[in-house]
TrEMBL record:
One of the GO BP terms on file: fatty acid metabolic process
Domain spans labelled AMP-dependent synthetase/ligase: 8-371
Protein name: Long-chain acyl-CoA synthetase
Record's keyword terms, sorted: Ligase
Record-linked SUPFAM superfamilies: Acetyl-CoA synthetase-like
Family per similarity comment: Belongs to the ATP-dependent AMP-binding enzyme family.
Superkingdom of source: Bacteria
């Protein structure tokens, strides 16, 4: 194969700055290579073999990157654990993934320690990462100190195994068979996704990591960029102005964001936005939720034609929309990747006509997956060799996909199907709104009525006056049958750091006394 892949690139140019920690500490590729080699030697001495798994409860930065790089050259599965989970939830992931080693940063010891206990993992296989201690965990140095920093023998490609967030029931690990390739060759194959966006290899490219690395897309885009020779610049947490500073400071050429990030960037005062040079950006890629047309248009006006969009799932397959595609089809999430196919079906599994809303099914050529330990769920989400994550949308005549909503979020009021995302997209562009969630609540006459929960913009008082102002702004833009019948206000919207709205947390209290939610 070619000349991509981190380990190959690091051997060729050990002085390349491969990563920059959130505190600004740079890390040369040669040093990272040595660290991941020592970890492989240490874990092999612990008995790990190809096909085994490791888990990491670590913040954004090179500590997690070393775990990822070690697993991917030793034939192991690496599962980065969501650091917002509780101890029992962490324990479930560690146990279900059958991890043979568990790494916890001292920052997350409060939940990581009970997580290890809940998982029942051998304390001799639990290691503290970072400069501090984790009660009952072995120091990381015990595993790696004195190990050779030379490339291990019999290298074989590993993989990540991410756990889906799971709208119902426990999350499931999305597991794919290992390909048995040389790690660098396998890493080079990983970069195929970035070539769809036109990425080029090597410096001076730099990728800004804006979201937690436990998310599939963050790992996939960051890891693939690294394997193309791009420097990874990590943010510890999202901050709009800090993102602009880092783009200018490091000449960032590519990043992965979500629409919430765009909204936060656009609400910065004009004088702050104008303070930073973002002209280095070539590929600002976004996904995870439908982006309101005015917000994306404003980003294109500000950053130029570098805003790319895609729709995909941890399970595989997806679409892509170039800036030109989106300008010609405002609101689209793109057309199918060259190796992916789309199918839109009704509730009976029959394909629907062009332009008709239905459940979105996808498949990706040559890529199979299973939900680890759950054959029933694996099969339940399948239709022939397609799968779905439960999203609703429609296709245009020329193959462009438009998202409507998640099936679980659909509101049925008086027999009519109402898509909350459409309403949210109209409300969120109001200058006094920082964030919004729309969902159905019980209504004895209509079945469901429309509720809007609004996070006011900074300094804007919540209350009936703001609600009336929002409703007035919908006049002529949204049919009155889609207007919220009531408003609640919230200080902070419950979103995951990747932008996903935890709508069930808002909706469930309204249905708790009902036998069933519609």
């Amino acid at each position: 194969m070619g000349s991509l892949g981190f380990w190959r690139l690091a051997a060729t140019d050990p002085y390349w700055v491969a990563a920059v920690d959130p505190d600004g500490t740079p890390h040369k590729a040669g040093d990272l290579l040595s660290r991941c080699n020592r970890l492989v030697h240490g874990l092999r001495d612990l008995g790990l073999e190809p096909g085994d798994g490791i888990c990491g409860l670590v913040p954004n930065g090179v500590d997690g990157l070393v775990l990822y790089l070690a697993a991917l050259q030793a034939g192991w599965y690496y599962t980065p654990v969501n650091w917002h989970l509780t101890g029992p939830e962490i324990g479930y992931v560690v146990a279900d993934s059958e991890a043979k080693a568990f790494f916890v940063h001292e920052r997350y010891a409060g939940e990581g320690v009970p997580g290890a206990e809940a998982a029942g993992i051998d304390p001799q296989r639990c290691f503290a990462v970072g400069s501090g201690e984790v009660a009952g965990f072995r120091p990381y140095g015990e595993l790696v100190d004195g190990r050779p920093d030379t490339l291990p023998e019999q290298r074989t490609a590993g993989a990540t195994m991410h756990y889906t967030s799971g709208t119902t029931g426990r999350p499931k690990g999305v597991r794919r068979a290992l390909n048995g390739l040389d790690p660098d060759d396998s890493a080079e194959l990983m970069t195929f996704l970035l070539t769809f966006f036109g990425f080029t290899a090597g410096p001076p490219n730099a990728h800004l990591v804006t979201s937690p690395s436990y998310h599939t897309a963050v790992t996939q885009f960051g890891g693939s960029a690294l394997h193309m020779g791009h420097s990874l610049v990590y943010m510890d947490r999202w901050d709009a102005e800090e993102a602009l500073r880092l783009i200018e400071r490091h000449g960032i050429t590519n990043t992965h964001m979500v629409p919430t990030h765009f909204k936060r960037l656009l609400t910065l005062p004009a004088e702050v936005r104008e303070r930073y040079d973002v002209s280095s950006m070539r590929w600002a890629i976004h996904a995870a939720a439908p982006c309101p047309v005015p917000i994306k248009q404003a980003m294109l006006d500000w950053w130029g034609d570098c805003i790319w969009e895609y729709y995909a799932a941890t399970e595989g397959g997806g679409t892509i929309a170039s800036p030109q595609d989106w300008r010609e089809h405002p609101g689209t999430v793109g057309s199918a990747w060259p190796i992916s196919e789309l199918l839109i079906v009704d509730d009976d599994g029959a394909e629907v006509p062009i332009g008709t809303h239905g459940t979105i099914y996808m498949k990706m050529a040559g890529v199979a997956f299973e939900y680890k330990g759950d054959a029933a769920k694996t099969q339940a989400n399948r239709l022939k060799d397609y799968f779905t994550v439960g999203d609703i949308g429609y296709l245009t005549e020329d193959g462009f996909l438009f998202l409507s909503d998640r099936k679980a979020d659909l509101i049925i009021s008086g027999g009519a199907n109402i898509y909350p995302a459409e309403i949210e997209n109209e409300i969120v562009i109001h200058p006094k709104v920082a964030d919004v969630a729309v969902f159905g609540v019980p209504d004895d006459e209509w079945g469901e009525q429309i509720k809007a929960v609004v996070e006011p913009a900074e300094g804007v008082p919540p209350g009936p006056e703001l609600a009336e102002e929002i409703l007035a702004s919908l006049e002529g833009r949204l049919a009155r049958m889609k207007w919220p019948k009531s408003f609640d206000f919230i200080e902070h919207m419950p979103r995951e750091p990747n932008g996903k709205l935890l709508k069930r947390r808002l909706r469930d209290p309204y249905w708790k006394d009902r036998d069933a939610a519609i």
